[in-house]
Amino acid sequence: MPLPTVAIIGRPNVGKSTLFNRLVGKRLALVDDQPGVTRDRREGEANLLGLEFRIFDTAGYEDEDAATLPGRMRQQTEAAVQDADVALFLVDARAGVTPLDEEIARWLRSTDRPIILVANKAEGRAGETGVIEAMALGFGEPVQLSAEHGEGMADLFEALLPHVEREGEEEVEEEDPDNPNAPLKLAIVGRPNAGKSTLVNRLLGEDRMITGPEAGITRDSISVDWEWEDFEGNMRRVRLIDTAGMRKKAKVEEKLEKLSVMDTLRAIDFAEVVVLLLDATRGLEVQDLKIADRVLQEGRALIIVLNKWDVAEDASSLFNGVKKALDEGLAQVKGVPLLTVSAVTGKGLDTMIDVAFKTRESWSRRVSTGQLNRWFERAIEANPPPAPGGKRIKPRYVTQNKTRPPTFVLFGTRVDLLPMSYQRYLINGLRKEFDFGAVPVRLNLRAPKNPFDRDKG
């Protein structure tokens, strides 16, 4: 049984994202003094004094034409209310009730959703007048709280309880990361306007993310749970993460955009597989290689996808050029999957998700010590390690100490002196022998530290 859902709504800058962060117990939503920071619906699992529910943070409700960016943001907010079991209507007690608050109240009264009026920033005497004004909105006495300071949470609990309490106890299924049936955590990253939100919307079959010609619409990393039907008809769970576009550092000047880039980097850390989306009409740029390198440094599995393939010119030449540039620019990992899709038409998207699941399998693969050392003996025999300064390096055995990404430890005498070229020889051998594909593979070296070790070889 899914968790009950709660939507937070209100005009810009009344503290919706601050309350969202308070309820989920993490700083998931970007918060800043300027209005309009949140644009897409963000969701998370909330726990309020033991009461569990899914919470939706929404964009500030603005009275703008539907074709404009604020208008498209409003449509997302309206959709969130329709999907929710109950909505929290936030007003700013210090600012008092505004004409936009009154307009939102009129719209909410026309819906069939239960509404809980919340007067935020109600701490101290400064909010008393605003609380009294809020009572005229027609939703009864408001719950008074301070999302920033955590005051009034018990009152909010009592107001929410009749709407989200579930009968009986329900066991929550814990996600085992080693379980192949666990949701695939898939992040979509790339430069602004590469089509990330359009791609997510196409996969979901709904306008879940705000899109448009303006670059940089997405600011938060938005996580959405979804099910994909694979080529054999099985339903596979996916946690899609849409992220803000990552521009060159020199162009990241605005404080809010810096927060967005940091949020994207956290999304990469959270993901298992990262899709780096390129705009086929613009080709591969240096910034793309920097993003790809960051993903691999973090040990995440990487897939590179050329979007807008339906309008690409000289497609064959473009594909071969990008592939060659990737091989040269990502020397540490050869053969990263390069796919072509159209987020607008949907062509190639099923293949992309299929490759993502297979890539996660490689990223999570564990090899037994016996298999490893049989390969290791052959590799050492075929290409013995060098003897720098006349001192023999004696590798003894190798073992895998972790997965995700596959990480191996090589033990032996003076193995810490192995040159990088020989380490790459071993890593490439591991990758080929055990079919790790292009996922990051790490090799750590362990030489004895005993100062009385007299093994001169």
UniProtKB/TrEMBL annotation:
Q: Which UniProt keywords apply?
A: GTP-binding, Nucleotide-binding, Repeat, Ribosome biogenesis
Any one Pfam family match given in the protein's UniProt record, by short name: KH_dom-like
Q: Which InterPro entries match?
A: G_ENGA (IPR031166), GTP-bd (IPR006073), GTPase_Der (IPR016484), KH_dom-like (IPR032859), KH_dom-like_a/b (IPR015946), P-loop_NTPase (IPR027417), Small_GTP-bd (IPR005225)
PROSITE patterns, alphabetically?
G_ENGA (PS51712)
| UniProt xrefs under Gene3D superfamilies | 3.30.300.20, P-loop containing nucleotide triphosphate hydrolases
Which BP terms from GO are recorded?
A: ribosome biogenesis
For this chain, one GO molecular function annotation is: GTP binding
- Residue positions binding GTP 1: 10-17, 57-61, 120-123
Where does the source fall among the domains of life? Bacteria
* Ranges for domain EngA-type G: 4-168, 184-364
Describe the family membership recorded for this protein in Swiss-Prot or TrEMBL: Belongs to the TRAFAC class TrmE-Era-EngA-EngB-Septin-like GTPase superfamily. EngA (Der) GTPase family.
What assembly does the database describe for this protein? Associates with the 50S ribosomal subunit.
Which PANTHER family does the UniProt record give? GTPASE DER
Please identify the protein, giving its name as recorded. GTPase Der
Gene (UniProt): der
